[in-house]
Design brief:
By secondary structure, the protein is mostly helical. Helix content is 74%, strand content 0%. It is built from 6 helices and no strands.
């Protein structure tokens, strides 16, 4: 984008989606790192050992920070997708609904796709 061009609707939509993904992930990560009661209880209910909750939160926090930085956003999206894949596996293992993690993974990539022209060039959608 040159200095004279204004971001289009797709870029703004991507930014908004990405901001929502980032905010949700940051809240989730901080709650895990801080060992908030609701987060620990939820993780234990999914059969995670309580002593692993903080490490899981740190992994999500790092992934989210990388996703938020434009130069490392693709790496952040890949790591976030891996995190969410683990969430799907855990939820499936305990027979809990896992659709939210799948939708969130789609939103992660949709936001990046819409806000980053290089990602759009790498993965062109054709009519």
């Amino acid at each position: 984008m040159t200095t004279q061009q204004k971001p289009g609707a797709a870029i703004w939509t991507g930014r908004i989606i990405s901001i929502l993904v980032i905010l949700f992930n940051l809240v989730d990560a901080v709650m895990k790192v801080a060992k908030a009661k609701v987060s620990v209880e939820g993780s234990v209910a999914l059969q995670w050992p309580e002593n692993m909750v903080m490490g899981i939160g740190i992994a999500l926090l790092i992934s989210t920070i990388l996703y938020a930085i434009p130069k490392t956003a693709v790496l952040g999206a890949i790591l976030t997708t891996a995190y969410l894949g683990g969430a799907v596996a855990v939820m499936a293992r305990v027979n809990a609904p896992f659709w939210f993690a799948i939708v969130f993974g789609i939103l992660t990539w949709a936001g990046l796709y819409l806000r980053d022209p290089q990602v759009r060039a790498l993965l062109p959608l054709k009519k």
